[in-house]
Amino acid sequence: MKKVLQIAVLLLLTLSLVACGTPVAANVVKSEKPRISSPNVSESDLTVLLEGNSDFALSLYNVLKDDKDGNLFYSPYSISLMMAMAYAGAQGETALQMSDAMKYNLSPDELHAAFNYLALQLAKRTSDASNFNLDIVNDIWGQKDYDFLGAYLDTLAQNYGAGLRVLDFINDPDGARKIINDYIYDQTNKLIKDLIPEGSINDFTRLVLTNAIYFKAEWKSKFNKYATHDGVFKLLDGSQVTVPMMNQRSIFKFASGEGWKAIELPYLGEQIAMDIILPDNFSAFEETMNADTVNQILSAMSSRDIQLSMPKFKFASDFDLKDALSTLGMPIAFDPTHADFSGITDVEELYIQGVIHKAFVAVDEEGTEAAAAGAVIIGTTSMPESMAIDSPFIFLIRDLQTGTILFMGRVLNPAL
Questions:
Q1: What is the pTM of this model?
Q2: Could you point out which of 52, 85, 94, 289 has its C-alpha 20 to 30 Å from the C-alpha of 279?
Q3: What is the DSSP string of 60-122?
Q4: pLDDT tens across 329-356, in order?
């Protein structure tokens, strides 16, 4: 179990949990059923969830590394969680493709219960911590006066503690976008700005699933700022750049193997850590890296006296994950003609219009500050019916309960 948990956090510097966010100025449509505070989840089910999340994290990395040049940073757990809330409304082939691509290797009921259990466990471990900030919010933004199925709302409420915050995508899509972006900006300590780009939400949008994560922690063993000096960092093309390099000597968990070294830097409180893998041949290692490789490296670590030198860094990444998730095996979810999200509503057919993710990380002598946010935008697949009453017509005024026609008439020329 320990090894599995280690995998789950390798690429997620900002461990996350499901939590209800600060209320915003919007009505909330929510199931009356309370969140299940003690979900019945076996250790084997939790292991399957964690292993699946880790497999997805590495699979997504292998796609993103080829699609994006330069630095790369994202939150695989928040993407897994965000997509799980969309998966709750998927049916048929759409659900099968999503479960395969996202590595959801449990039945839907078991999966949602396991996500709930994991979130509650993370919340329990971090609620008493005073040495780091970890704020996570997950929200669902729905079209006002829209008929969302009760079973879908029940799943969100019982397993994710979430209700639908009501906005008007149809009449004011850009206003709704700005409300969501402002909310995410606040929840990420103003690090993630304009999460959803202009034009991503339109009058066909019916549902937006979002999450926001903010993390800030100090190193257990801080770097002395006076020991930071300019140093050489070698690039993949053989050239070099000069960057501020932090230096310290301390006891760290460390491992080395054929073609690589690895080190673990714990944060204050030793509940969260940063794991760094340094390959001799980065391109070759990256090409073959998978969850098993990472697990073996983390398992090999032991405490050693280390003289450490590493760069300070700060950067942001942003992604449109539609192509990446399609490559991983779920293209049908993005197909307006074949997607099946009938578990969300029976009013009209829905599909995923886009999946957006942004992340920021800053590492210095004191510790790490990181934030990530994402949105799954779900919209209708069909054009609305058009009706222009611009020719003679018949009309009725009737009692709806009894069907009694109280008045009836026709209009041949409304100008008379």
A1: 0.85
A2: 52
A3: HHHHHHHHS-S-----HHHHHHHHHHHHTT--HHHHHHHHHHHT--S-HHHHHHHHHHHHHHH
A4: 999 999 999 999 999 999 899 999 999 9
